[in-house]
Amino acid sequence: MKYSNQLWKQRLAGRLPAHLAEEIDVFEDEIELRRQGKIDERVFAETRLRRGVYGQRYDNGQRHDGITTRKLPYPEDKPTKGPNTVWDAPGMQRIKIPFGGLNATQLEVLAELAEEYSDGVAHITTRQDVQLHFIHLDDTPAIMRRLAAVGITTREACGNTIRNVTACPYAGVCRDQVFDVTPYAKMTAYYLLGHPECQDFGRKFKIAFSGCSRNPCALVRMHDFGVIAKTRENNGRLERGFEAYVGGGLGAVPYQAKLYSEFLPETELLPTLVAIARLFTRLGEKRNRNRARIKFLVDKLGIEEFKRLVEQERAQLPEDPRWKEALEEIPRYREEPRRPAALVEIEPAGSAEFREWLRRNVYRQRQEGYAAVTIALPLGDITAAQLRRLADITRNYTNETIRTTVEQNFLLRWVSEADLPAIYEDLKAAHLAEPVANTIADITACPGTDTCRLGIASSRGLAAELRTRLLERREPLDESVRGLRIKISGCFNSCGQHHLADVGFYGVKRNKGRYAVPHFQVLLGGQWGENAAAYGLAIGVVPSKRVPEALERILGRYLAGRQDGESFQAFIQRIGRAECLKMIEDLREIPTHQADPSYYVDWGDAREFTIGDLGVGECAGELVSPTEFQLAAAEREAFEAQLHLEKGEAGEAARRAYEAMKRAAQALIAHRLGRAPQDPEQVVETFRKHFYDTELFFDAFARGKFAQYYFNAHKRNGGPWDEDAARKQIEEAQLFLEAAHACYQRLLEQEQPVI
Amino acid sequence: MEVQHINIKIFAREPAPADLAGAIPVFHRWIQQDATGELLIDVADYRHVPEGPGVMLIAHEAHYSLGPTGGRLGLLYNRRTPATGSTREKLEQAYSAALAACRRLEQEPEFRGSLAFDEGDVEVIFNDRALTPNTDETFEALRGELEAFFASRWGQGTFVLEKTGEPRERLTVRVRRSPETALRA
User: Does ipTM top 0.95?
Assistant: First the structure.
């Protein structure tokens, strides 16, 4: 381990919440086990993904340099960190920020991590996460410890899990909200984190909370499960609940979520989510990754049948006392201002820049005298130095109430209106006061070919180019155009949410002769409002280098042709796809490579365009069964046993070795019977009945010998141990684990595929 | 004192070019040509970030970036993997790599005549808060090594060291040739 990483481990020992400390220790063990080749690469890949440790472009160890595809000569003395993934290749750390809520100390730690382990820049994602790029796997435990010390976990940031629970960043201060959904989002995020019913999904599962149906801030209808705050009268009492939607999602095939319930009482929120998780685990597609999201299950079953099955699951759920406890916490959630409210004229005298900033970036809260301020980040990027300045501003003007947004920005809440001139000056000094929030220049883009394995064209390169051109225009934009939204994805997978934009783009490739040319598909008329109520219309592809012209044409045509007060969506609907295509048709012409080679190079790049660097994405995670995870956990126990033995702790070493055997036995029992007992006595008896007496566990040559090791260890467990006896038990545990893996393999071969 | 990650920033002379787009093809060529002898991976464009890293050459051992971090253009050598040897050897390695990159950039067609670096105006950043916390004690502990190194490069008594920045930043030391020495250089 790198010396500084050791130091962080020592320095933060005892300062982390115990459960987070243990999780990180476990992950560190898993890294070591993989290094020793004791964990399968697929299991390790899914393990790290579930800690937010993601792959990046070129981590397969090769890259097209513009002339040829070359091997990147990483040191060859290490294993892979996943299928076709080089250990030393830079990766990405995704950091889950439930509902986008951060405080000043957390901002400072993010700044430190960006500087010390990344490239000095933190990136806000379209799901309110923070991402650090170009991270080395060996540094990730230190990163996680430093985050855990300020209350952040990266657990289940990627992989086939419940991803970050997002919420409207205005929740609590929004003028239109029914009630503040923040504590509900928080409750859901932490209740479902690591929940046993959410560990065997075929794909990821995304949840969003919105305080109202009118505004788009949470994009409920594009989520696997999304809710909108609602109340109803019940015996003279105002009851809280949610309008609930299920089965939405973007990706290559976008689906609008279906209405699951017009009113899901707050008491039913967590139980319903657990019931859905159970159903998704049971019936969700596992083999075909392209159809494994819950939207396909909802579509296949129909919403009524889906609902019936969820209710059936719900009826069988044992009562969990945490449902009630979590709800009791809701009224205690408070966000307080730091400074007194001040009712001031919101557009006072001041520079034109300041007035423009007030107009674009400042939102008057429902609480009189307070405002929420958007900090528009270019492409979601913020430097470490800016994060520190922002931490200061957050402390000075608010009670550390800041959130990330799905438009890759920050939102400072509870700013006293009297402080607006001062906060503007402070933000401006940190280059954080660009007056472009909620305008066409505030472009959203996924990482695209910059760092994503799946990127086809440079979404960030195009976003930066369009942004620059829009900001540098001599002629001011008409107000009806200024309020439009542009969203860009590097491929059809929609991480840039291109379907929801007035003008959306996603990267594709076309050929001209023997050359590949970067292109973008143009989508028009998507609806960001009303929680992502409608998806855009694909009208055709344009060479990447002609997208700026295409945008000018589209905006110009709208300005010239719109009828009184006609919205952009209505205009696109009215003129239709064929007419839209005409606007850009001539731009689809590509000069020959000889005539203009610039068309064959993407934005922000200098290499001849190729899609030869495309890899297999890790968005879908690795399909790893709970049995494989349990067996990996058993391996980890055996590894810990060895470490204790090396420290001269024979008793603990023997206990861990026994624990390893018990966990492996539980893994096999759970695989065979659905659930495994927890009581050690029952584990032994169940294992004996179903694996020993049936000879299922028997080795062709050793027969039941390895199972006997476990039975003997069980009998001896708790007794005194000397070093030799403990060593022997560790060796026997290792043999038992080998036999467990072999048995699992035999079971898989015997079993019929699940239809 | 154990030191693992030394960053060196060599500042550009004024007037510095405002447009850094030229660095993109330059860094891509460096990858094609294995120009630095290190494992060079990719180019990242951060020109849209104010006072950000500008254009970065992503590498296994160390990233290089030509950008205005801290408000002034320079070439930053950002060591990633721990370097070997004594602190002095690590300083030598980082400074030599940064300086070589500066000289190479000055000669590239995209920047020839428009970009020049002042090797006598340098920031040394100790990019590791655990090993080298940003305190006066750490600075004093490292001062001797820094003085000896820059004296070997520029001559005894020809430069000034100054600890800069605020406590939350990484330990950063500005090293400048004194004006009369700089004039002679």
Answer: yes
